[in-house]
From TrEMBL:
Stated family: Belongs to the peptidase M1 family.
Enzyme class (EC, first level): hydrolase
Keyword Metal-binding: yes
EC numbers: 3.4.11.2
Record domain Peptidase M1 alanyl aminopeptidase C-terminal: where: 562-885
Protein name: Aminopeptidase N
GO terms assigned for molecular function: aminopeptidase activity
Domain Peptidase M1 membrane alanine aminopeptidase: 230-444
Amino acid sequence: MRTDTPQTIYRKDYAPPAYLVETVEMGFDLDPDLTRVATRLTLSRNPESDGKSVVLYGDGVQLVQLRMNGRELTRRGYALGNGVLEIFNAPEQVTLEIETAIHPALNTSLMGLYVSNGNFFTQCEAEGFRKITFFPDRPDVMAKYKVMLRADKKKYPVLLSNGNLIEQGDLGDGRHYALWEDPFKKPSYLFALVAGSLVCQEETCTLKSGREVLLQVWVEEGNLDKTQHAMDSLKHSIRWDEERYGLELDLDRFMIVAVGDFNMGAMENKGLNIFNTKYVLANPRIATDADYAGIESVVAHEYFHNWTGNRVTCRDWFQLSLKEGLTVFRDQEFSADMIGTDSGRAVKRIEDVRVLRQAQFPEDAGPMAHPVRPDSYVEINNFYTVTVYEKGAEVVRMYQTLLGRDGFRKGMDLYFERHDGHAVTCDDFRLAMADANGRDLSQFELWYSQAGTPRVKVETAYDAGQEAFEITLSQSCAPTPGQAEKKPFHIPVAVGLLDSQGLDMPLFLDGSGSAEAFTTAVLELTESSQTFRFKHVKEKPVPSVLRNFSAPVHLDIDYTEAELAFLMAHDSDAFNRWEAGQRLAMRRMLALVKTVREGGQADAGAAGPLHDAFRATLTDSRLDPAFQEFALTLPSETVLAEQLDVVDPHAIHAVRQAMRRSLAQALRGEWQIAYQANRTPGEYSPDAESAGKRGLKNLALAYLVELDDDAAHRLAQTQYDNANNMTDRIGALAALANSSAPGREQALARFYEDFEQEALVVDKWFSLQAMSRKTDVAAVRELMRHPAFTLKNPNRARSLIFSFCNGNPSQFHAADGSGYEFWAEQVIALNAINPQVAARLARTLDRWRKYEPALQQKMKAALQKVAATRSLSKDVLEVVTKSLA
Ligand code: TRP
Ligand code: ZN
């Protein structure tokens, strides 16, 4: 908790550490009430610094003893305050022996060493290691670790840490020990230990080089029937990184451990990845198709960090996207390759862009907007953002778009050749890409330093006489906090031209020098405005611009409704086919919002072209069901809100609902046919093809239930009763929960009874109700009184509180402000338990200025209430201060 004004840390203040650590030896005497940690460090002066002080950080740890080079240091030998321990004028070579005492059972922040369901776990990224011992806890200090764990043998039969198990045995007294050694140098944020009563599934795997490695997935007893998918995902990831990037697992043993109390998704600790149970445990009874896909991608993500993050790490936390953007890009590509088909790849791309638009674009337009490589922070935990992760991944993807797959691979090879074993910067990555390809990528740096989503405006002209088609691209970027003016970005814009048959025209770009015809050209927009000219264009084309979403920008382009329907039907680029449908729907919805705002009705009845286009997509049996599902899903309320200057969440909700009902009505027969045609009888399999069918079938059900009639209620109830997998069960339950079906309450009650032993399913139960249109603030308060609810478990808090505040806009934004009062209460309650989780919830209101005045005032009051709370963590304080600024 804060006792003084929080400090802002600036990127420009970076200085190398005065001392480097060579070796770390640690001994843990594990006890939930009082754990003793003995640490021996060997340090030496860093030739790259002229500092003479050893600087160690500690956070909430009790210093029991401190010895330097064999002699105890008294309070005169060092200074300790504000979490910094400084030893002045230390000699060239230093051995420090540090003894600390910590209280894992009282640690509700879930950072450092904590207890979950009786077992010990650690979480050290970003600055959690300093909650265990005093240490130069910064990622540019890399050292080799040897770790001795001692604990009661009965309660903690399993003792794990990074690297290899060197020795284990009994200590007498019912205690035992295990000694672990990590052969690789690593920053302290990758340290991990796990101790407790756990069981594992293990397999061996032969690497490309022929070396055999041991793979383990550790879970609590009773969960071994839920580990196979994580294990398979790990094996696929190992294979993929060998094949796609020539990167091999460098350890003899690789462990994944699942824990029910966890702040985020998972953590890439060297050789000992620790995961939120949500991203490990799956079987058809408890996990949905989305859960299976999530596990596959998070297992891959953490595994890929072993090279992009661990072997090559970050110099400082401003460089976070160096590892996160790159690793997200890698896991996105992996998941796409696992689906394997072209349409599967496109669907994956659509999903990723949806996340970007839903979450990152709003962030980039709000008070917390920051560059992919931020310039300052108060609390680094607040910068594990969609900008650093998802926009960061888009930035990495643009290298591949600009350099080609082979060029990108060359850049990766050079990156590892230059930087393996080192802590480096985003600039180092960019230079490796540039140098490996003989390209100047200096302008590309602006993607790291400038915040905000650029807008690209497209204007075209066709000259029939010259058979020439010109595309003029102009770019701009709105101001963001601290950045009033922006320089032009280097933007790859992938373009194709469709002829009147809907076929791709061969492209001859003027000045490109290549006589070879291709059908997608990557235009490089580097100035504020540029014109590109295509030759031999025999008829006036319909341009398909920003294919596959080649850059994270807003695209302003004037299409007629007929052109959008044409693109939706014919574009060879599946992403832009989807995009055309979204534009068509968006246009219609924005017009209706305007009508409603002016006092009219949200009458979506006369939506002719949209209905025709949706009908064509729904009935086209050549299309991939997964694609159909996305193409037939209307832009979300959040995405709609982004398009408006003043947000009226109730008007938006009314319009989207009216639109859904009118699509349900107009296409009723088609939805019914699609429902029947996409059943997946037989044994459940989470593969992309079956998952796509279930997705479309459940979308059809959701539309039909919008009609709220007996037939729809029966369809949902029957699906619920007969489901043999969680995807169908939860799809049916969500449909029932949004309806006035007579079986609604009974189904909800039965679901809870059937799954009350499965924490992850109970989370779904809370979350589904939190997001139901029938659930208001009072109902959420009631759910909080349910015996299974607790704020202490992050998954549970997210399932109810976050789901309601972020996923139920029409109820959350209740006109009386009761949703905001509820939000403030929960932020304050969470702040005292877990600042990181509290700060995430605090983000919910950061776009308050965009709302209509009446709501704005109430949101502001709620923010002020939180800001005025005593003993606010710096995590929450930073978020609310920036929101109110
Ligand atoms: N580095 C992790 C990842 O992206 C995420 C992470 C960062 C994390 N900080 C954390 C996880 C704190 C849990 C708690 O894979
Ligand atoms: Zn990561």
